[in-house]
Design a protein that fits this description.
Two copies of one chain form a homodimer. Chain A is mostly helical. Chain A has ten helices and two strands. In chain A, β1 and β2 form a beta hairpin. The structure holds a DNA duplex (30 and 30 nucleotides).
Chain lengths: 224, 224
Amino acid sequence: MTSVEGHRRPPTAQQFVLEELRRAITTGRLRPGDPIRQEALAEEFDVSRVPLREALKTLEGEGLVTYKAHRGYCVQRLSLDDLREVCLIRELLEAEAVRRAVERLTDAGLAAAERAQAEVERAAAAGEVLEMAEANRRFHMTIFEWSELPRLVRLIRTLWDSTDAYRSLYYGEEPNRQRVIEEHRATLDLLRRRDAEAVVAVLAAHRAHAVTAIETQLAPGTVG
Amino acid sequence: MTSVEGHRRPPTAQQFVLEELRRAITTGRLRPGDPIRQEALAEEFDVSRVPLREALKTLEGEGLVTYKAHRGYCVQRLSLDDLREVCLIRELLEAEAVRRAVERLTDAGLAAAERAQAEVERAAAAGEVLEMAEANRRFHMTIFEWSELPRLVRLIRTLWDSTDAYRSLYYGEEPNRQRVIEEHRATLDLLRRRDAEAVVAVLAAHRAHAVTAIETQLAPGTVG
DNA sequence: CTCCTGTATTTTGGATCCAATATTGATAAT
DNA sequence: ATTATCAATATTGGATCCAAAATACAGGAG
């Protein structure tokens, strides 16, 4: 094996930089509100400013950074209000995706979701938080994709991207990871019974719980 | 007056190119499926390929063009299925935006919408189709913005952008223009009475009509 | 005649350099 | 002392040039 070091480097510098920028933002290395100094960042990633700027344009489209002409990019402030808003929008879109998905559900599709779930549980047991988050994402996207509404899925994916920062926060807690596994099992069960509304309810409950968890985690001393 | 020729040129080349590209796509000058030859386009717009590529990245984020590494950009095929899907998503998002908007509706807000509507009617009477489409957009966005959900409004705006091509088709027909004016008046009336669900219904009916109109316009000889 | 292969050409990706704009700081006038 | 103005600096925007990849094409083997 020559280059199987976890992540193989993307075929273009802009895609590489895009991943790195996402990581930098989600891990808090670049903090919300920070202006983005292109020269410094480009040097750090060892690329020129051109691919960096193209990656930033992509992130601008996703709402992770803001842009003003001649003043450059800033990391978008992700307030709790933003998080709540994203969850509200996800609620609307994912509910529709699930309803459509259940109508088109096949055995092969279910098997794919079960494989993703197996990977989630494996990663959880092994304590691989990052892998678990990734498999979790695959689990959900697999379901959404059954809807056969590619634009809808694309939007949902973008919304997930835009709150990656908070997601890693959530998955950092062991009880939350356990909870996710339970919810996935319940979801699979309800899917087998073609009960779309119940699945929608589970997903909604999950989002609500995640928001609450993050709220308390972020504002721990508001009462004391 | 020095540069009041309708549109003043944007402060950056990428924004200028972005507008031009949008226009080229909506007017059919660049047709769906067409690969985008950067060199040729850049020369046509009299800029280098750098700002062109940044504009394309923005359009990629909006779903108007697709991108593959080392193979470049293509104008997204906007099938009728795509149009229907965008309308479905708009239905979900705009309904929520309207419900929130009605809860927060102020007199000043209503006045702004009425001004936009006045401009719509003026442009319609003057036969200025492009101006009418623009005022129409302002009318709706004004309402959506009362929701105070900036990300939601942003998404809706992007969805509107992605179907601009079809919109100009719709507004090209006089009866459609007349219909829009009626619907706006009804909408304003219902807003004054704070009847969110009725507004949602009007908007849904409008979208349904637009889709049907475009379907018949695009496939005129399917029966004969 | 078909298919594979190697090469030429086209097209995209990226680096460097220069221009334009914004920001900062210093100086002077009120 | 405060504010306005102008110069110096930092930062972004864009053009050109070169590298890398993909595509098209020609030639030869089967």
